[in-house]
Design goal:
The protein is mainly beta. It is built from no helices and eleven strands.
Length: 120
């Protein structure tokens, strides 16, 4: 089983970034897929959930700026992040769970994380 994120970089405030997450070794299309993030000195927080059918939910802090999508044929979830702010700086983790849930403990599979830094 593997969950691999990609796309984390240094970006200026107001900039855009795309993250991707590819899963293998399990039927990722049967799982809800989520993005969590953990900023410096902060707890890991759920930022976005996309369920089996593609319906999405977002944390208020990113609503209107971040957009999630999934391609079940490729076991891939993508995330378009626009209007980035310094407070978006964090390690971003992709995770998969059998049901769309907010609790990290309910997630079966996790990626290693990718660093996103928003700074001028």
């Amino acid at each position: 089983v593997q969950v691999v994120e990609a796309g984390g970089v240094l970006v200026q405030p107001g900039g855009s970034l795309s993250l991707s997450c590819v899963a293998s070794g399990f039927r990722a299309g049967d799982f809800a897929r989520s993005w969590f993030r953990q900023g410096p000195g902060k707890k890991r927080e759920l930022v976005s959930v996309i369920n089996f059918g593609g319906a999405t939910n977002y944390a208020e802090s990113v609503k209107g700026r971040f957009t999630a999508s999934r391609d079940n044929a490729k076991n891939t979830v993508s995330w378009q992040m626009n209007s980035l702010k310094p407070e978006d700086t964090a390690i971003y983790y992709c995770a998969a769970a059998r049901a769309a849930t907010v609790a990290p403990s309910e997630y079966d599979y996790w990626g290693q994380g990718t660093q996103v830094t928003v700074s001028s």
